[in-house]
Amino acid sequence: MFNALSQTLFVGRDLLHLPQCASTNSLLLEECRAKGVPYGKVLITSHQTAGRGQQGTWHSEKGLNLTFSVALHPHLAAGKQFFLSIIASLAIIDYLKILKVEAAIKWPNDILINERKCCGILIENILEGTCVKTSVAGIGLNVNQRQTPPAISVGQVTGRRHDLQEELERALICFEKRLLQIEKEKELKAAYESHLLGMKEERRFLMNDKTIVAEVRGVEESGRLLLSCDDKIFSVGMKELKWIF
Predict the structure, then answer these.
(1) Rounded CA Rg of the chain
(2) Which sign, positive or negative, has the C-alpha torsion 209, 215, 217, 218?
(3) Residue 201: C-alpha distances to residues 27, 118, 211, 216, 217 (Å)
(4) Residues ≥6 apart with Cβ < 8 Å to 109
(5) How far is it, in rounded angstroms, from Cα 103 to Cα 195?
(6) Nearest-angstrom CA–CA distance, 237 and 108
(7) Within 13 Å of residue 205, how many CA atoms lie on the same side as its CB?
(8) Within 10 A of 12 (CB to CB), how many other CB atoms are there?
(9) Which residues contact 43 (CB under 8 A, 6 or more apart)?
(10) pTM of the model
(11) Can you tell me the distance from the alpha carbon of 220 to that of 223, in angstroms, rounded to the nearest whole number?
């Protein structure tokens, strides 16, 4: 059982815990479309049976991890919606720093520890005209689950079992702090790029069915990844590129 937060301004003050559901993102999006949902409402489950991620499903063992979604009303231009991915990614990086765990962001928003995935993030938006009316940020964080490569959990790194309510509170406090910086776009982008996997390093990628070696140079405001290869800088979208480890 998870409890609402009392030490935040709005994130997690309204919290609903479901013992089991298919997808917290799907349910919260449906609720947002049907009626008004408070900014920062959290829907969390102990067992997500059909979790979704950017690249497919997200598997999590019952009662061992954190799988939750947060409702947002960001008042962002549609062209700047990637800043929500930046905020969510940095929030998890900040949270892990509290536990003295170093992590990196694998573009666009997977969180890796020792180049193994510990957290997946899925941002889904409801647009109204040229603005983002509502967003749902879904986060799946491996906490106590014993993972096998290429995944990893927080507990495997810290060597201990964590209380899920305590970790949820820490993560949501970090999330709110980053949300309150939403207008500091340059700061957020710089912080995101400073934690970006492969930044100013040569990495191997699969692109157009060919293996390339390129250097990560940052991200565009739209969220496209900037790469440097053969003295040329170009941008790619999520479906155009695959990392090779």
Answers:
(1) 18
(2) positive
(3) 40, 22, 16, 6, 9
(4) 54, 85, 88, 89, 120, 121, 123
(5) 8
(6) 9
(7) 26
(8) 26
(9) 15, 16, 18, 24, 27, 28, 31, 68, 69, 71
(10) 0.95
(11) 5
Amino acid at residue number 26: S
pLDDT one digit per residue (tens) for the chain, 245 residues = 899 999 999 999 999 999 999 999 999 999 999 988 999 999 999 999 987 665 555 567 899 999 999 999 998 999 999 999 999 999 999 999 999 999 999 999 999 999 999 999 999 999 999 999 999 999 999 999 998 889 999 999 999 999 999 999 999 999 999 999 999 999 999 999 999 999 999 999 999 899 999 999 999 999 999 999 999 999 999 899 999 99
Q: Which residues contact 20 (CB under 8 A, 6 or more apart)?
A: 45, 46, 47, 48, 49, 62
Query: Can you read off the two tokens belonging to residue 192?
Result: 């995101």
* Separation of alpha carbons 60 and 70, rounded Å: 18
Bond from prior residue into 150 cis (ω within 30 degrees of 0): yes
Q: Enumerate domains of the chain plus CATH numbers.
A: 15-194 (3.30.930.10), 202-244 (2.30.30)
Per the CB < 8 A criterion, the answer to whether 40 and 176 are in contact is yes
